[in-house]
Design goal:
Elements: E1 13-17, H1 21-32, E2 41-46, H2 52-65, E3 73-78, H3 84-100, E4 102-107, E5 110-112, H4 116-126, E6 133-137, E7 150-154, E8 161-164, H5 165-168, H6 175-184, H7 188-191, H8 199-208, H9 215-224, E9 228-232, E10 237-239, H10 275-288, H11 292-317
Parallel strand pairs: 1-2, 1-4, 2-3, 6-9
Antiparallel strand pairs: 4-8, 5-10, 6-8, 7-9
C-alpha cells in the first residue's frame, strides 16, 4: 500500500474540466468562497479536445485555469489526448489516492456552498478508520421532507464526493463483472431503489458502450460490498450542468435545490443505512419518473405538437 503523504491537514481537491468555461468559472469561484480554500491543494485535470470543434472552448478553459490563485497550491494536468470524463476521473482519483490517501472530487458543473470543503474534510477525518464507510457526499436531492443533519445510504454517489484509498480500491472498472454479481445475487431491484430509477439499465448501457459512466460503476462497486456513503441533510452542492451543456446531462430542473447557508455538522450517528432517507429517495425518484403510460402519452403529445408546428410552418411558407 502506498504511504499517505500529508502536505496539508486538508484533503486535496481534484477538479475535472473540459470545454465549459462559464461553468468552470462558477465552480472555481464557489470553491474560493470557502474559508479553507487558501489551505487546500487544488489539482485541475483538463481533458484534451475530442475534436476540432471543441478546441476553442478547451483552450478558453485552459487559459482561465492557468491564471488561478487563492488555493494553497494549484497543479494543472493538461491531458495531451482526449481521455473522456470516465478515464480522466478514474486516472486522477487513483493518482491522488495513491499520493495522499484521500481526495475530494468535483466536476466542472458543480457549485458548492462555502461550507462544502469543511464538511468533506470533517467527514474524511471522522470516518477514515470505519471500513464500512466508502465515501462522503455533498449533494442531496431537494426532498419534501426533513432529514437528519447527516445520514448514511448504501452505495456511492458522484456530485461532489470524497473518499480514501481504501474506498477507491473497491472500484471495479468492468461493468460486466458488476452486472453479473448484481443479477446472480438478485439485487437489481434494490440497486434501482426499489425499481424507481433505472440504474441497472444504465449499467447495461455502459457495458454496451451507449454511455461511458464511471459513476454507475462506482455506485455498483460500493453497493455490492454493502458499503455506505455519508450524506448531508441539506445540500452543499448544486449541479449547474443540467442545461444540455454536458456529455451525459440533459436539460432538467428536477435536481435543483438550495445550497446550505450554514455549516453541516458531523456528529456520531449509527453506521447503517437510514431507512427513512432511503424511502424519501425512492419517493423522489417516483415523482420525477412518472409511470410508463404517462411517459408514452407525453412523448406522443410532443410528437403531435411538433408535427402540427411543422404543418403550420409549411402552410405559412406556401
Amino acid at each position: 500500500m502506498a504511504q499517505e503523504i500529508r502536505t496539508s491537514k486538508y484533503a486535496p481537491i481534484a477538479l475535472f474540466v473540459y470545454n465549459r468555461p462559464w461553468h468552470t468559472r462558477q465552480t472555481i469561484e464557489a470553491l474560493l468562497a470557502s474559508p479553507i480554500a487558501a489551505e487546500s491543494q487544488l489539482y485541475v485535470f483538463s481533458d484534451a479536445p475530442r475534436n476540432e470543434a471543441a478546441s476553442h472552448m478547451v483552450a478558453e478553459v485552459r487559459s482561465y485555469i492557468s491564471g488561478l490563485a487563492g488555493f494553497k497550491s494549484i497543479t494543472i494536468v493538461d491531458r495531451e489526448t482526449n481521455l473522456g470524463l470516465a478515464r480522466s476521473i478514474i486516472d486522477g482519483v487513483t493518482r491522488l489516492c495513491e499520493q495522499y490517501g484521500r481526495v475530494i472530487v468535483l466536476e466542472d458543473d458543480l457549485v458548492t456552498s462555502p461550507y462544502f470543503l469543511q464538511y468533506m474534510n470533517d467527514g474524511l477525518d471522522a470516518y477514515k478508520d470505519v471500513e464500512q464507510v466508502v465515501s462522503i457526499h455533498g449533494y442531496v436531492y431537494p426532498l419534501n421532507a426533513t432529514l437528519p443533519e447527516t445520514f448514511f445510504m448504501r452505495g456511492a454517489d458522484c456530485w461532489g464526493w470524497a473518499t480514501w484509498k481504501r474506498g477507491w480500491d473497491l472500484f471495479e472498472p468492468d461493468g460486466q463483472v458488476l452486472l453479473r454479481e448484481l443479477t446472480e445475487r438478485k439485487l437489481t431491484h434494490s440497486f434501482d431503489f426499489d425499481g424507481t430509477y433505472p440504474y441497472t439499465r444504465m449499467l447495461r448501457n455502459q457495458i454496451k458502450g451507449k454511455n461511458n459512466s464511471w459513476a454507475i460503476r462506482w455506485y455498483a462497486s460500493a453497493f455490492l460490498r454493502n458499503r455506505l456513503t455519508l450524506y448531508p441533510g441539506r445540500s452543499l452542492v448544486l449541479n449547474i450542468g443540467m442545461d444540455n451543456s454536458g456529455t451525459h446531462c440533459s436539460t432538467t430542473s428536477d435536481f435543483a435545490g438550495v445550497l446550505a447557508d450554514s455549516p453541516v455538522i458531523i456528529e456520531p450517528i449509527p453506521v447503517e443505512e437510514h431507512l427513512f432517507a432511503r424511502q424519501q429517495f425512492v419517493r423522489f425518484h417516483k415523482e420525477i419518473r412518472p409511470a410508463i403510460p404517462v411517459r408514452i402519452l407525453r412523448k406522443l403529445t410532443n410528437i403531435a405538437r411538433h408535427a402540427m408546428q411543422a404543418m403550420q410552418t409549411k402552410t405559412t411558407a406556401s
